[in-house]
Amino acid sequence: MPHLPEHLLAGYRNFMSGRYLAESGRYRSLAREGQAPETMIVACCDSRSAPEAIFDAGPGELFVLRNVGNLVPPYAPDGQFHSTSAALEFAVQSLKVKNIVVMGHGRCGGIRAALDPNSAPLSPGDFIGKWMSLIAPAAETVSSSTFMTATERQTALERISIRYSIANLRTFPCVSILEGKGRLSLHGAWFDISTGELWVMNKETGDFEKPEMG
């Protein structure tokens, strides 16, 4: 039995003979000099919405954090384990990124779970349920609307959760201070898996708009 699934080994062979061969100099430079991405992306774990593919990014261009539902918790220096906060701290304080983009997507399973209060936990720990409770107030408000279809409620909460995460980003002193100084910008985006459309959050209104492709 192989130590890795064969499809991964096949993909690696293609990587070595394709992308790595074409960009070997860049990889060697990154190994020697370290990474210096200007943008951090907070995205969902969903395998259908990979930021590097969506933004056609090369090695070293994006610092990507992925978790269920692309959520950012509020600042909580309580001595517990905080994977998302640790990645954010490193991106802002060490890498000194200039942009943080919270990118949600359509048909998100985590958001769907948040909208269904009767969904059974996947395990006794109910880690997903606890994690998605970060947006419980918004989920309760959206799910109570009888004027929207289930699909509309899902899309609404996917986009609202992005605004929630951006608000939580600002509870981190390192983020709020640098944003206030104009050295860090926060952005929101929503990706539609079925059409490939990217909707960008208007910073003034909070609305999501399709950017002009030119």
Q: Going across the biggest sheet, name each strand in turn.
A: 2-1-3-4-5-6
Distance between the termini: 50 Å
Q: Helix fraction? A: 40-55%
The main β sheet shows up as: 6 strands, mixed
The pLDDT mean sits at: 96
Put simply, the count of helices is 10
Count of domains: 2
At the first level of CATH, what is the class of the largest domain? Alpha Beta
For this structure, what is the CATH homologous superfamily of the largest domain?
Carbonic anhydrase
Keywords:
214 residues, alpha/beta, Beta-carbonic Anhydrase, Chain A, 2 domains, six-stranded mixed β-sheet, 6 strands, 15% strand, zinc ion binding, Beta_CA_cladeB
Would you write up a description of this structure?
The protein has 214 residues and is of the alpha/beta class. The chain has two domains: 1-34, no CATH class; 35-209, Carbonic anhydrase (Beta-carbonic Anhydrase, Chain A). It is built from ten helices and six strands, in the order αααβαβαβαααααβββ. The chain has helices spanning 6-17, 19-22, 24-33, 51-54, 83-94, 109-115, 127-132, 136-143, 150-169, 173-180, and strands at residues 39-44, 62-67, 99-105, 185-191, 198-201, 208-209. Strands 2-1-3-4-5-6 form a six-stranded mixed β-sheet, with helices on one face. α8 packs antiparallel against α9. The longest helix has 20 residues, at 150-169. The chain is globular, with a radius of gyration of 19 Å.
